Amino acid sequence: MRTLKIQSSLRTLAVALGVAASAALTPGVATAGETPADGPTRGACGYAPLEDQTYSTWTGLPQDPARTPARGTLGFTLQTNHGDIPVVLDRALAPCTVQSFAFLTHQKYFDGTDCHRLTAYQTPPFALSVLQCGDPLGTGWGDPGYAFEDELDSARALENWPGFPDGSRKSYPRGTLAMANGGPDTNGSQFFLVYRDSRLRPDYTVFGHVTDEGMRVLDEIAAGGIDPGTEGTPEDGAPAHRVTIERAKSGR
Fold it and tell me: CB–CB of 86/73 below 8 Å?
């Protein structure tokens, strides 16, 4: 079993959004004959190669300066077969996450990948409406061969979900861009885009937002419905109409 804490079913992920399990598991491959580094990078972010890279698509480790840039925003565009989804990454929210996303985009890691998961939970007490992407395998198991720590101040700063004054559930608002994970400090490449306010524990790093233009495309994808497959439900599965990130690029 790999080092990430993989959830066993899509239904489990309705409550705790994480890396989705799949009945069709395909091992990833290291690219260009590269070999993972022995240990974590020495900068502020400490990107750490996974011990088990069975499902990894290795493309190297991000640069990790002693002082990670923590000011300003970066614009990227996810060019999909349904239209462009521009996103804005905020370094002040999650500098290490932004640095990793920018690195993977530069490495063309997301190009030609499918967004493998669409949810539409709206029956109380559940509320989860997201499109999840970033896995080259398209199964929910894939990762870049490294992991890095959560940056949860951005999540804790979100408004409390109604009825949870203790902050144990937060409102991830429409338009949020956040990291999916398989447990504490297991961030890799998978991320989710929120198309309707969603209720989640503050366990998922928020690192940017989707622009209004991008939300129109995201709404169209969500309106296309869900294919639950063999493991999902009518509220949780793959998009009924395949969603492919044909190219991810810097700029909007």
Answer: no
d(CA 56, CA 139): 12
Dihedral, CA atoms, 234, 170, 9, 29, nearest 10 degrees? Answer: 110
Query: Could you read off the pLDDT of 162-173 as tens digits, one per residue?
Result: 999 999 999 999
pLDDT at residue number 37: 61
Task: Answer yes or no: is pLDDT of 23 > 50.
Answer: no
Query: What contacts 229, CB < 8 A, 6 or more positions away?
Result: 23, 237, 238
Q: Give me the DSSP letters along the chain.
A: --SS---S-TTGGGTS--PPP-SS------GGG----SS--SSSS--EE-S--TTB---------SS---SSEEEEEEEETTEEEEEEEETTT-HHHHHHHHHHHHTTTTTTEE--EEE-B-STT--BEEEEE--TTSSS--B-SEEB---THHHHTSPBPTT-TTSSSEEE-TTEEEE--SSTT-B-S-EEEEEE-EEE-S-S-EEEEE-HHHHHHHHHHHHT-EE-TTT-BTTEEEESS--EEEEEEE--
pTM over 0.85: yes
Q: Distance of CA 167 to CAs 18, 69, 126, 200, Å?
A: 20, 29, 16, 10
pLDDT in tens, 211-246: 999 999 999 999 999 999 888 899 999 999 999 999
